[in-house]
């Protein structure tokens, strides 16, 4: 009979979690907006097929860090990133990196659902088209259907694929954006507060979806909701004033965090 003590079981689980393959890694990441420094020497590993939640009070640098992972900060004029960020060991800031290809490998879903002013079908087919992932109508149809299936939206839209994406409800629009992200077969999906514009029912659907997507993708999600972080993630990273103050298994983070600032934050003492 297996008589492992509770701590031994915990250790085994922990080892299992830490053994998940490394997908992305930030080393000594600093980010500046002009003169102002927003992140200080952040070291964070993102593991494969894991949901990593980024939490912390407003302005602590969650979105800033998230955007370093697919170089979305490049689109902000005075923003400068130092340190090293790797995807499968490769430095994504190396001059040889094609940023368009990088963003296909590391996709993003934003806070406000932002479908293109095009049909539902075109919203999903757009990425595969610009990346040359399908050769004919049948292949596009296949990608559109499977992406909408994966985003849990197919049954609701299969009879109205030619209607505008903007005509869907907010929750449906966000799932359409997830389908759009999934359509180019990314390896990592970044989500910045993907549920903050959704009602509780739509939020629950997206959370369920995140849970399912983890089997095939690596997910990093920024959230203000402790409950959401606890529900959807396996790893949690807590930011405070531009510093990564703690990173841990989500269960540990919410029951017995190591850092006082994490404790204060999850107890609602600030932020
Ligand atoms: N485009 C920008 N130009 C200048 N400063 C910026 C810019 N974006 C963010 N900052 C600053 O960088 C710091 C971190 O901001 P960031 O948006 O990453 O925080 P956050 O943790 O995502 O906050 P929130 O929870 O409110 O979304 C803040 O002080 C913010 O004012
Ligand atoms: Mg933010």
TrEMBL record:
Identification of the protein by name: Phosphate transport system ATP-binding protein
Family statement: Belongs to the ABC transporter superfamily.
GO CC field: membrane
NCBIfam families: 3a0107s01c2 (TIGR00972)
Alphabetical list of Pfam families matching this protein: ABC_tran (PF00005)
GO molecular function, one term: ATP hydrolysis activity
UniProt keyword list: ATP-binding, Nucleotide-binding, Phosphate transport, Transport
GO BP term, pick one: phosphate ion transmembrane transport
Alphabetized SUPFAM superfamilies for the sequence: P-loop containing nucleoside triphosphate hydrolases
């Amino acid at each position: 009979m297996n008589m492992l003590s509770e701590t031994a079981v915990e250790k085994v689980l922990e080892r299992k979690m830490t053994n998940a393959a490394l997908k992305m890694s930030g080393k000594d990441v600093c980010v500046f907006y002009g003169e102002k420094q927003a992140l200080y020497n952040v070291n964070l590993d993102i593991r494969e097929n894991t949901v990593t939640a980024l939490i912390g009070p407003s302005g602590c640098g969650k979105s800033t860090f998230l955007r370093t992972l697919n170089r979305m900060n490049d689109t902000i004029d005075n923003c400068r990133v130092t340190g090293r960020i790797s995807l499968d060991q490769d430095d994504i800031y190396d001059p040889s990196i094609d940023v368009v290809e990088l963003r296909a490998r590391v996709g993003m879903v934003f806070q406000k659902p932002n479908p293109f002013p095009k049909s539902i079908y075109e919203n999903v087919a757009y990425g595969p088209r610009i990346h040359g992932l399908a050769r004919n109508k049948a292949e596009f149809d296949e990608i559109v259907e499977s992406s909408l299936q994966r985003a849990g939206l197919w049954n609701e839209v299969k009879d109205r694929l030619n209607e505008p994406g903007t005509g869907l409800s907010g929750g449906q629009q966000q799932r359409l954006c997830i389908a759009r992200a999934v359509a180019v077969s990314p390896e990592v999906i970044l989500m910045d507060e993907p549920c903050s514009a959704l009602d509780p029912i739509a939020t629950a659907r997206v959370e369920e979806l995140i849970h399912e997507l983890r089997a095939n993708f690596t997910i990093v999600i920024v959230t203000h909701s402790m409950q959401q972080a606890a529900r959807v993630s396996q790893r949690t990273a807590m930011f405070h004033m531009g510093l990564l103050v703690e990173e841990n298994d989500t269960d540990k983070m919410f029951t017995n965090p190591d850092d006082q600032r994490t404790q204060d934050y999850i107890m609602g003492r600030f932020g």
